[in-house]
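Worked example (supplementary).
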Amino acid sequence: ASPLVYKMAMAGPLLLDSLTLAERDERTKSEQAVTEASPMRLRMEKFIKEQQKEIVRALEEVDGTPFRIDAWQRKEGGGGITCVLQDGLVFEKAGVGVSVVYGTLPKPAILKMRANHKNIADAENVPDSLEFFAAGLSLVVHPKNPMAPTVHLNYRYFETANPDGSPGAWWFGGGSDLTPSYLFDEDAIQFHKALKEVCDAHDKDYYPRFKKWCDEYFYNKHRGESRGIGGIFFDDLDETVRDKENTFAFIQDGLKSFIPTYIPIINRRKDMPFTEKEKEWQQLRRGKYVEFNLVHDRGTAFGLNTPGARVESILMSLPLTASWQYMHEPAPKSREARLVEVLKNPKEWV
Amino acid sequence: ASPLVYKMAMAGPLLLDSLTLAERDERTKSEQAVTEASPMRLRMEKFIKEQQKEIVRALEEVDGTPFRIDAWQRKEGGGGITCVLQDGLVFEKAGVGVSVVYGTLPKPAILKMRANHKNIADAENVPDSLEFFAAGLSLVVHPKNPMAPTVHLNYRYFETANPDGSPGAWWFGGGSDLTPSYLFDEDAIQFHKALKEVCDAHDKDYYPRFKKWCDEYFYNKHRGESRGIGGIFFDDLDETVRDKENTFAFIQDGLKSFIPTYIPIINRRKDMPFTEKEKEWQQLRRGKYVEFNLVHDRGTAFGLNTPGARVESILMSLPLTASWQYMHEPAPKSREARLVEVLKNPKEWV
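After joint prediction of all chains, the assembly is encoded as:
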């Protein structure tokens, strides 16, 4: 057994039982570096914080403007780091956020989660409450140039704690999707190809399944069109799908593929010439992005309804500016019309 | 009995029973002018369509730009008229819409409505479906000048039909509220005073009750602030509150007070000087208006979830442009800070 496990065993259950999950994790982190033997909670936290730094650095390099970095605490437990670059040279708004939340699930929430995760509690013995841990990295990048696509990414880990502090139920979720105002097939193909490669390295079924899931999830139902040209989306990846270690490896590969995929796309598009009309079209597409995030996105709704949530971190996903024109229709056979056509009928890109 | 009632009695239940409520009403309208003896459905429809014309005329006169007028049908029953003035001289976007919907409530919807309206069906004898009628006028006006407030108004009537075509349950709802970016006490007082006068003429309890209801309803819970400086809001005004005739009279007075209240306010503000910074603040307030409408407004959510809904008519309430800046805070003791202070702690204006 690793020294950490030894140490925890020595501390004895009586002492640890009096601590919350957050306090246990704080203690563990203060005593010892996070390694592969550490609890997944700490490994995920460490990984997403490292990735946040790398992504911020890569985007700063493209833009030439530093991010504003806000570390914050959530008084109910946990906290996060929100990095935002606003009104830069290349990016209208880029937000890269990490949040690490410790809390307690009340019984109704446990019962609801049982629908997808039977092992969260015995049907005959559902506890009145359960401690939980949730950590994730979210990013949204809205470039200024209407030829450059908006990108969104999120990877997250959720775990409940047994009364003795050992991990109970767990699952990973995540994905990434691209939202262009002007469609360049080259970008769409490169984006999907990169995600397919990541998926295929872990499971050949992942890409087709998660690509479809993405098309279905990022769908503006009231408009009858997708938010963008998709990518991958998945949730509830638990031991019924694959073991924790392999799923974490998949999540890591997904997140690490962001920089090498998006940076070449933004570099190709950021300095392209565009007209005032094209900028106007981008603003209309931004309006529909806002509609999806505020009307349909479960993550945003969950965030806004979480007590003590940091609203500015949740809504960093909204663009700096957006527009709504009554009854706007792109001209037939225009580039704008072609985008809408693809949004109404999602394509296979690879 | 009026000629219409006589005629309907003569037509006999057997013939009428084979028609839908919409068909019955179409027939009645084609045979006879709408009078005080007509069913409330037709009186409400006639009244809101007249008011729509008057309001459109009054706003056109202020702006100097004609509205675009779209009449539309809903294939599931009913239709409406949507009037929008976009990017005018005074108004960024002004929408005045009337909708008249005929449809069928499924049993779950009937059961839900029983919570507030016991007489919609006997507890022991809830039908599998009920025909319903809903008609309303909605308007939202977003002026260009940041010193001029956005205004919203809605008055609506809902009725279910008994199997013999006679009215079953019914209720009115509505109200009006003001959303300034810069607070002029004079405007807020005039707006509330006008609504209080309308309320007081019908029931001294209405204004305090409906003012409070408005503050509670138009509340951006996730921001901890009201959308604007309020007005009145009410729903479910049925026979447990007051009879149908008097409630309709109240609705009429409320709607008719719009022009004499808002037109002087817009005329005072539309040509005031303003800075770029003040325009930027207006755009940020617009962003919060969008948040309320897309995240919290039950009317918008209901509309977007109604099969066959005309999305462009529902979302005409959104401004032409809006903005979101991460962590924007008004300077202490500024005019912007004073507005936020009032939004966090709604005032009594009269």
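Two points are worth noting when inspecting this output. Confidence is low (pLDDT under 50) at residues 1-14 of chain A. Chain A touches chain B at residues 68, 70, 84, 86, 93, 95, 221-223, 283, 287, 290-291, 294-295, 301, 304-305, 309, 311-312, 315-316, 318-327 (CB under 8 Å).
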